[in-house]
Design a protein that fits this description.
- Helices cover 34% and strands 26% of the residues.
- With 357 residues, the chain is an alpha+beta fold.
- It has a domain at 120-316 and 324-355.
- It has an 8-stranded antiparallel beta sheet, covered by helices on one side. Strands 4-20-5-18-19 form a 5-stranded antiparallel beta sheet, with helices on one face. Strands 11-10-12 form a 3-stranded antiparallel beta sheet, with no helix packed on it.
- The N and C termini lie far apart (121 Å).
């Protein structure tokens, strides 16, 4: 263990150099001074220049503020003008749309009044169909006016969907869930089969090829633009040019371009009167079907073809075509048979025009 004497000796040896250095500094009168360039020279402040600069900055800020205010007001006016113009344009569009539809509505009211008051009608996205009663001097009948809105509103079908097969228009309508139906073209029976007469088309394709028109035979159907097309076609290219979608054949043509056509002698008396089915159109492409009643096919009841022409003219139709009549005349509306079939029941047929909601 270190003694007190030894400890004192250790402390004296440790501090002796520092004590000696302090005694020497005091004896030498030592002083410490820094060179002149160590201290920066004082800078004189030009308060007037600073004031001018501050005034300029404040002036620029004031100008910028005024400019921003003017710009903001201009933007607000532009926005208000845009909104006002947009509202005005919307009003113009609404008025234009309303006005554009007026001629069609006026025309529709005019032709509808000529037929009478519909006693049943169907409105849907695909079509608008109206059913009327006809009470003429020599017969009773029905008018079906159809406005197609889309290509889904109408098509032609084969009996039981097979060439040579037949079914009633009511059966076809039920099978396809159609809201209305009318018998289509003529037919020829052969070995227990019932075949569509002459040129017949479905889905833009010929069922049994193209046959040039002969004698009084015509083709009538709808094209891809939902327009009624019809008449006599001497070659396939002539018909193809009209882009037919579907159609059938029969005799004769009753009206073209609002003018009644001459009826061949044969069809004036064979038979003279009978149940009839006629397809026609208006200048706005609406369709008109006329179906008349008759007790039989012996020529003593029903309508003559001349009387059908009178109805077409009276109702304002443009083109008109006689479809298969007699016991073939069929009119279905909302799931029921509208006309009175001369056979006492509907006749199975190979082609039908059907209409869909």
């Amino acid at each position: 263990m270190m003694t007190v004497k030894a400890l004192n000796r250790f402390c004296l040896l440790t501090t002796a150099p520092f004590v000696g250095l302090m005694i020497w500094l005091l004896a030498a009168n030592f002083s410490l001074s820094l060179p002149q360039h160590t201290y920066p020279e004082p800078v004189e402040v030009d308060e007037a220049a600073i004031g001018n600069q501050m005034s300029g900055l404040l002036g620029n800020l004031d100008t910028a503020k005024k400019s921003a205010t003017v710009t903001a007001k201009s933007i607000k006016k532009s926005i208000a003008l845009y909104r006002s113009t947009n509202d005005s344009m919307n009003q113009i569009v609404k008025i234009a749309t309303t006005q554009a539809g007026r001629p069609a509505k006026i025309y529709d009211r005019r032709i509808t009044r000529k037929i009478g008051t519909p006693y049943s009608q169907i409105q849907s996205d695909n079509l608008a169909a109206q059913l009327f009663k006809i009470n003429a001097q020599n017969f009773k009948g029905y008018a079906l006016k159809v406005k197609l809105k889309t290509s889904k509103g109408m098509k032609m079908v084969l009996g039981k969907d097979k060439v040579g097969e037949a079914e009633t228009t009511l059966a076809a309508a039920k099978r396809y869930n159609a809201v209305a139906g009318v018998n289509a073209g003529g037919f020829a029976d052969n070995r227990g089969k019932r075949y569509p007469l002459s040129t017949t088309m479905m889905n833009g394709k010929y069922i049994s090829g193209f046959e040039p028109s002969y004698k009084d035979l015509f083709f009538v159907g709808m094209n891809k633009n939902l327009e009624l097309i019809g008449g006599k076609y001497w070659d396939k290219g002539q018909l193809d040019k009209q882009e037919p979608l579907f159609g059938a054949s029969f005799v004769p043509v009753l009206m073209k371009n609002g003018v009644s056509q001459s009826i061949p002698d044969k069809w004036q008396v064979s038979p003279k009167r009978a149940p009839r089915t006629v397809i026609a159109n208006y200048k706005d492409n609406q369709l008109l079907f006329l179906v008349t009643d008759g007790y039989n096919e012996n020529g003593s009841s029903g309508a003559t073809l001349q009387e059908m022409q009178i109805l077409l003219s009276r109702f304002g139709a443009i083109d008109g075509y006689n479809l298969d009549g007699g016991g073939s005349s069929s009119l279905i509306f909302n799931g029921r048979v509208v006309n009175k079939p001369s056979d006492g029941r509907l006749r199975p047929l190979p082609t039908h025009f059907l209409f869909f909601k």
